[in-house]
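Justification of computing resources. Each target in the renewal requires a structure prediction run like the one illustrated here; the chain below, 241 residues long, is used simply to show the kind of job we budget for.
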Amino acid sequence: MTLRRTSRSRKGSSPAPLPVGDEKVRRVRSMFDAIAPRYDLLNRLMTFGLDRGWRRAAVEALGLPPGSSVLDVACGTGDFCRELEAGGLRASGFDNSGGMLFRARTDAPLVQADALSLPVGESVADGITCGFALRNVADLERLFSEFSRVLRVGGRIALLEVAEPRLGIVRAFHRLYFHRVVPLIGGLLSDKDAYRYLPRSTAYLPPGPEILSMLERAGFGECRIRLIGLGAAQIITGSRR
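Resulting structure tokens:
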């Protein structure tokens, strides 16, 4: 997952490259530092508050008993950590953006760290969550391998990510909203370049079957993708073999 992806420029005349490798890591970290002050507000506005229910559904999809240890990777301001703790789970958060961690609202322990090199030992966690961040890492296969490393055998993952609806009219509305309205709102209330980038960053996401194959190669079984929110989001689950 280190190939350079492209997206058409605003005039459509030439492809504008999306960052890869170390450049991507630096730009994503800087972007989230910049948008941290209004990140939660914009999430609620742009998803009409549905993102909270999506996180609860992901926590339920973990299927872990109370007291289980769960690492929330790319924890941002702590939304997932709060849902995990509300479900009786022991959450720890990791994020590469100091700005996001500074704005976090959770009692869970938080650590600034690269998702591809988590500062924890092998086989220490019962579960992992990750919200809307798969497309922001430099190497998706390395991320899944890192998840496999830190999870105990039988440990569970529940990864929440954007998706594209399959139904024609819903898909058309979603494309208009996600690629036109979201950047407009983001530009008015926060950083316009960041909210132009976020819809474009879906180009980093492989198709569902490829994601499932990556997880299986990384040591996961029972891998599934469930579409939610009329197909606008997906929950990816699996168990460490």
